Amino acid sequence: MLGPVAHIALIVRDPARTAGFLRELFDAPVLRRTDADGHDETFVRLGVTWFALVGADVTRERTGDHVAFRVARATIATIAAKLKARGCEFILSESGSSLYFFDFDNHVFELDSSGQEQELERLAAAAGPGGAAFI
Description:
The protein is built from 3 helices and 8 strands. By secondary structure, the chain is an alpha/beta fold. The strands form 2 sheets. A 4-stranded mixed β-sheet has the order 1-4-3-2, with helices on one face. A 4-stranded mixed β-sheet has the order 5-8-7-6, covered by helices on one side. Strand 2 (30-34) and strand 3 form a beta hairpin. The relative contact order is 0.17.
């Protein structure tokens, strides 16, 4: 049986820069350490999940892959204002219930206040253990 997500690793060109960006947006804690094998590691905690920012010289295409966080609707306006002040690109849904933004390496993050998670939980409960629900 799976437990909660332990961490998510993102390959970035400059871990310190990405960590600083996320720290400024969300007042997120950042940790740096050297592991037992001598690798420098940077971690940032977003919500309850740690993100390992792994440095590598790669170019990532922007896709629809993204990480979504449940937030209060007011948080979307706050973060949109911070992104706008920094001159960062973002997409706000027409309803204003979701905001998508991008880091320096084209990772996509979503802030969602739509209640989709509650709908999925309702569908899962209706399907029963191990079942599938179709709309």
